[in-house]
Write a structure and sequence with these properties.
alpha/beta; Rossmann fold; Methionyl-tRNA Fmet Formyltransferase, Chain A, domain 2; 2 domains; seven-stranded mixed beta sheet; six-stranded antiparallel beta sheet; elongated
Length: 314
C-alpha cells in the first residue's frame, strides 16, 4: 500500500479532453514526473507552430515535457526510462508500443470514453451519439497489445440527452473521466482495485454484439436522405461540432450543425427540400423531415437558418 501522491506518474495526452485529467491529478497533489505529448505542428493561415492543449497546460504549470516524433526512438526511450515512473497514465494519446506501456512497474492505465468493451476505437463519443445510445460512460483499464482490450479497473456511466451533441457529451465526459482516473490511481496505490477481463475474440456471440468506434471518415458525414429522420438527426448530433454532417447543394458543401426532426409522412421525394425562403428549410427523409437550424456553407461562417436563407439563392 502506497500514498497515491508519492507515485511517480508519467502523463501521456494531447487534446483538450486530456487536459481535464492532467489538471485533476496536479490539483490532487500527484507527482507528475513527465508529460508526453505530440510535437508542435503548423496550423492556421500562417502555418505557425501550434502547441497541443496538453503542452500549453504543462508549460503553464512548469511540468517536464517530452515531445517525441517517434515513440520507438532510442533517445525517447532513454529519456522515458530516466523518469523512473511507477505508473503511466494515458488519455487521448496515440497507440503505444509494448516496451513503452510495459515499462513502469505498475504498467500503464488508459482512460477511454465508453463503457468498454463497447465502442472500442478512436471515436467512441461520436458513435455512441450517432447510434442513438441513451447511455455512455468512461472506463479506466490496463493497457495491453490489442487496442482498448486491457483489463478493466473502474467504470462510470451517465445518460445522453435526447438532443445532446457529441461536443456536449465530450465536455461532460472529460470531467467525469478525470475524477474516475484519480479514483483509479488512488485505488491502485492502495491495492484495492481488482482487474476485470474484457470479452475476447473467442467469446463469439458476445464479440458480434460489440459496437465499434472507428475513426470518422468523410463518407460517414454525408447525409443519406433515404434513412429514417431519427437516424439523420442523430448523425447531425454525433458529428457536432466536428467534423459535422453535410450535404452538397449547388456543388458546394453545406455543413449542418443543428437540426430538429419532424416525423410525418413526407409529401416530397427523399432529399427534396421545402422552404419559405425566410424562416425554414427542411429536407424529406424516409419517414419525415429534417429541419435545418444551424448551417455553414463552404467558404462562409456558421449561421442560423434565417440568416442563411437571407443570403442564399436556390
Amino acid at each position: 500500500m502506497k500514498d497515491f501522491q508519492t507515485l511517480r506518474i508519467v502523463f501521456m495526452g494531447t487534446p483538450e479532453f486530456a487536459v481535464s485529467s492532467l489538471d485533476t491529478l496536479v490539483k490532487a497533489g500527484c507527482t507528475i514526473v513527465g508529460v508526453i505529448t505530440a510535437p508542435d505542428k503548423p496550423a492556421g493561415r500562417g502555418m505557425q507552430l501550434q502547441q497541443s492543449a496538453v503542452k500549453k497546460y504543462a508549460v503553464e504549470h512548469n511540468l517536464n515535457i517530452l515531445q517525441p516524433e517517434k515513440l520507438k526512438s532510442l533517445q525517447f526511450l532513454e529519456d522515458l526510462r530516466s523518469l523512473k515512473a511507477d505508473l503511466q497514465v494515458v488519455v487521448a494519446f496515440r497507440m503505444l508500443p509494448e516496451f513503452v506501456w510495459n515499462m513502469p512497474p505498475m504498467g500503464s492505465v488508459n482512460l477511454h470514453g465508453s463503457l468498454l468493451p463497447q465502442y472500442r476505437g478512436a471515436a467512441p463519443i461520436n458513435w455512441a451519439v450517432i447510434n442513438g445510445e441513451k447511455e455512455t460512460g468512461v472506463t479506466t483499464f490496463k493497457l495491453q497489445q490489442e487496442i482498448d482490450t486491457g483489463a478493466i479497473l473502474l467504470q462510470e456511466s451517465f445518460t445522453i440527452g435526447e438532443n445532446e451533441t457529441a461536443g456536449e457529451v465530450h465536455d461532460r465526459m472529460k470531467e467525469i473521466g478525470a475524477q474516475l482516473l484519480l479514483k483509479t490511481i488512488k485505488g491502485l496505490a492502495a491495492g484495492t482495485l481488482k482487474e476485470k477481463a474484457q470479452v475476447t475474440l473467442s467469446d463469439g456471440d458476445l464479440q458480434k454484439a460489440l459496437m465499434p468506434a472507428p475513426k470518422i471518415h468523410t463518407d460517414t458525414c454525408r447525409i443519406n436522405w433515404s434513412q429514417p429522420v431519427a437516424n439523420i438527426f442523430n448523425l447531425v448530433r454525433g458529428l457536432n461540432p466536428y467534423p459535422a454532417a453535410f450535404i452538397i447543394m449547388n456543388e458546394k458543401m453545406l455543413k449542418i450543425f443543428k437540426a430538429e426532426k419532424e416525423i410525418i409522412f413526407p409529401r416530397h421525394t427523399e432529399g427534396d427540400y421545402e422552404t419559405d425562403g425566410k424562416t425554414f428549410l427542411k429536407f424529406a427523409c424516409a419517414d419525415g423531415y429534417l429541419h435545418l437550424l444551424e448551417v455553414q456553407l463552404e467558404g462562409k461562417k456558421k449561421m442560423g437558418i434565417e440568416e442563411f436563407l437571407r443570403g442564399y439563392r436556390f
